[in-house]
Specification:
The structure is a homotetramer. Chain A is mostly helical. Chain A has helices at residues 18-23, 29-52, 60-96, 99-110. In chain A, helix 2 (29-52) runs antiparallel to helix 3 (60-96). Chains in contact: A-B, A-D, B-C, C-D.
Chain lengths: 114, 114, 114, 114
């Protein structure tokens, strides 16, 4: 059923970046699988928070804590993807040679570290 | 039904805080509904990221961006819950009188702002 | 000599906020003195980083660490000022009565927490 | 005169990292000069905040704002040093060859981004 719905929030049409094709900078299989596993766990956690909120007497701070915990789990996903990205760039720096572009791309990616 | 499934990630048994009963500091219905709506949307967004990751050629930075967007959505949930919490404390400060305890509780809640 | 120079970076003319006079929300003497002491210490730390940078062979990560440590010290200043601010608002909430305005002011102040 | 005072806050004896000598990863002169200029400006800003605090009627939120502005200036210093550090690592990756070590060092440096 979920498959029939638009895959993402309306504001975010999830366009595939042109970089992917250009540089062949794909996620290595291990990092991709680890990310999937962690994101599924974060989704389960989020479902738990939604169940908490069904209780009208839920305490504010308990919700704040759990939402922050989900954010922490998402930060770990981004940390691991960023590490894979840095590794790719460093490993291919010699062949590519365009140090400035590589540095720009890495600094751009760092913005998504949280 | 929800009660039969484990309510959350194993590390987080989600104990109901003693504060809830003590101070009656519950989420007001409007903030609770808004939080549920926003968290459902964040969950849909997360499912979209999981579908992205099914593609072996997904680009690292695209995933980083989407995960950060989900975190931003979760921050808005906590911002709105925190506002409700602050409002409750300010509104009842006169009856309660224990300024120091109120300030401690508010400063504690602020830690979950992200 | 410092007194003859403009008191702050050009972009920041440091106008006294209209709120100060309006609500009488001044820093209590103890927090003000503590802030002065901590900021002087942060300034000393910053001077230490400047001396580090006189050495042409200074290592990047050493500078990154020290600059981050100064930022941490500044965060503690803001944490303590924020606590004083919250205390003032909670303590006077009963007399003032305008809960919405108080909440808006507190949420505004929270933005400066880092 | 400054040289006679302890160079830094007591908790931070500022030991020169062993990495500096080992890898020769020094700050390039341009980034070093830019950092000095920016840190001097941050120090001037901090002195401005200290003068603000001499006024017993200073408004809390005005201080919070200025302290946060100083932190923002320090973040820019670290951003620029980090960029220089990434550039060094990428540029020398081919000669060094030890991708894993380079990635570890870069990920370590990222922790100081704020």
């Amino acid at each position: 059923m979920a498959a029939r719905r638009p895959p993402m929030a309306p504001a975010d049409p999830l366009p595939r970046s042109a970089h992917a094709a250009e540089h062949g900078m794909h996620l290595d299989p291990q990092t991709r699988e680890e990310s999937i596993r962690r994101l599924r766990s974060a989704k389960g956690h989020l479902e738990g928070v939604l169940r908490m909120l069904e209780d009208p007497s839920v305490y504010c701070v308990d919700v704040l804590k759990q939402v922050k915990a989900v954010q922490g789990a998402l930060s770990k996903v981004n940390e691991s993807i960023l590490r894979a990205h840095v590794r790719d760039h460093v490993a291919t720096a010699a062949q590519r040679g365009d140090t400035d572009t590589i540095v720009d791309e890495l600094m751009e990616a760092l913005k998504y570290r949280t």
